[in-house]
Amino acid sequence: MPTIAIIFVIEMKSQLKITNTLSRKKEVFEPLNPPFVGLYVCGPTVYSEPHLGNLRTFLAFDIVYRWLLYLGYNVRYVRNITDVGHIENSAGNVVDGIGERAKAENLEPMEIVQKYTNNFHWLTRTFNTLDPSIEPTATGHMVEQWEMIQRIIDNGYGYESNGSVYFDVNKYAESHDYGKLSGRKIDELIAGSRDLDGQDEKRNPLDFAIWKAVGPSFPQRWKSPWGWGVPGWNLECSVMSTKYLGTTFDIHGGGMDLKFPHHECEIAQSVAADKAEPVKYWMHSNMLTVNGTKMSKSLGNAFLPAELIAGDHELLDKGYSPMVVRFFMLQTHYSSTIDFSNEALQAAEKGFERLMNAKKVLNGLNYVAGNVNADEDQSIIDTLSAVEDYMNDDFNTAQALAQMFELCSKINSFKDGHLDLGSLKAETFELLKTKFNTIIADVFGLNEEVEGGNDAMDGLMNLLFEIRNESREKKDWATSDKIRDQLNALNIKVKDEKDGSTSWSL
Ligand code: AMP
Ligand code: ZN
Predict the structure, then answer these.
(1) How does pLDDT run across 366-407, given as a tens digit for each residue?
(2) In CA terms, which of 107, 248, 251, 421 is 20 to 30 Å from 313?
(3) Which of the ligands is closest to the CA of residue 339?
(4) Burial of 147 per CB tally in 10 Å (0-12, 13-18, 19+)
(5) Which helix (H) or strand (E) holds 427?
């Protein structure tokens, strides 16, 4: 279990509600087997560095996970790693991202997988997202995938063709609503599908591969009961979610762009193989956009989180710390798009600073009992409740943050003496301190930045910069270069600003 401290067995006026993409309604969350909750989120395909848009989705579900933990649920959080690079494109051909990358870099496919899995882990930790309870890989579940394919065939919804196995969408749609999640109509899908190359193996253009035969030129392939090939991408999530969470589980999440066909296919596969609706609550987070267009590698408008931190991209005025980026994303509800802009990030930087300063001030306040003001006391309790109510209202981080800023104003007034801290009951002050800290750190996942947040480190760095400046004035380049190079070797980036000052970042 992660280390979120559940200090309160929470008694809240409100109940958690989740917008279920399947019903398109906000529903009261009732787990199948309380206090246990099963949460599955589609993970990354590890053949390139995740961009900031990908990060948005993983952050959105990090908040879901953190809030469920805060509520006291015993959550099993499964997020897969897609380490088989095979996605069937609209022409019915297999696109092998990992294999192509391996060939281009002259590496083993598993070296590519390892490299980008490490990179993904660096990313999630840098942005302080909690590790999942299980991080299963597609390659580690080959046998289970064959078993599910076989069940689909046995139940009459899959057929073999030239060593590939296809899901029979038409057959499924005779008795089930294919399209119910994404709101697509099967007739329109059929009308919209073209007779493309590579589809002659299929009975119908909508059928999708659950096993795809590939030749020896594919560096990653397995010998299945149907011959050499690779599993269909849609299949792995069905297999791994139900293996660890049960044939029907509580919450399945992913980016909006995965609703169709990926998640629609997941439902069809589970129903066909196990005669069970796999998911009680489907959740989809919205996209990160740049000037209104979805951030995507193929559109050339994507930048990497590392570029954002370093300020190393033409779209960026400067670098932003991971916690500022996290705060920036929390300001928008997960179901709305976030449009990236330098101005919005600069505003977020100020907001983040204000929140963290208030936290520091609060923790330094000295409580002395005084004349309790019942209204003042109640207003703190009500605002704390409002934070929780907004989080219960479909994880509304934007509104919850706004309530936290109400509390920031109060905290600053206690410090400035505009409000008397003694007007609160001692237990209300303790509640404020505990909840304010817990919500920032454990629910929002916002930490102190190393820069500026650590006086000793700042003092040390300033001392080094003074020595460096003195050596430069004496034209002692060896010493000044040594300081810069050794800091670089420690991953501390030193930047000489235009105003003559020196800044640093990790
Ligand atoms: P992928 O590795 O391409 O499968 O993507 C991993 C996750 O990132 C998926 O859940 C996608 O929905 C999500 N994603 C991709 N692009 C964006 C974007 N621009 N904004 C938000 N999420 C995205
Ligand atoms: Zn998936």
Answers:
(1) 999 999 999 999 999 999 999 999 999 999 999 999 999 999
(2) 107
(3) 1
(4) middle
(5) helix 426-438
Is the pTM higher than 0.90? The answer reads: no
Measured by CA distance, the residue closest to atom 9 of ligand 1 is 255
Whether the CB of 124 sits within 6 Å of ligand 1 = no
Take atom 4 of ligand 1 and give the residue whose Cα is closest: 44
The contacts of residue 460 (CB under 8 Å, 6+ apart) are none
Output the 3-class SS for 46-83.
CCCCCCHHHHHHHHHHHHHHHHHHHCCCEEEEEECEEC
Q: Is 57 in the pocket of ligand 1 (CB under 6 A)?
A: yes
User: Which ligand has the shortest distance to the CA of 263?
Assistant: 2
> Do 362 and 316 fall into the same domain?
yes
Tell me if residue 345 falls in helix, strand or coil.
helix
Label residues 38-62 b or e (16+ Cβ within 10 Å = b).
bbbbbbbbbbbbbbbbbbbbbbbbb
Cβ of residue 237 lying under 6 Å from some atom of ligand 1: no
The pair of structure tokens assigned to 149 is: 């394919």
Burial group, residue 246, by CB count within 10 angstroms (0-12, 13-18, 19+) = middle
Instruction: Judge if 279 and 293 occupy the same domain.
Output: no
Q: Taking the CB of residue 254, how many other CB atoms lie within 10 A of it?
A: 24
What was the pLDDT predicted at 6?
47
Asked if residues 71 and 240 have their Cβ atoms less than 8 Å apart, the reply is: no
Amino acid of residue 292: G
Residues 289 and 340: beta-carbon distance below 8 Å: yes
10 falls within a domain: no
- The neighbouring-strand residues paired with 33 are 36
Q: Is the domain of 318 the same as that of 384? A: yes
Please report whether residue 2 resides in a domain: no
CATH code of 349's domain: 1.10.730
What residue numbers bound the domain in which 209 lies? 31-285
Q: How many domains does the chain have?
A: 3
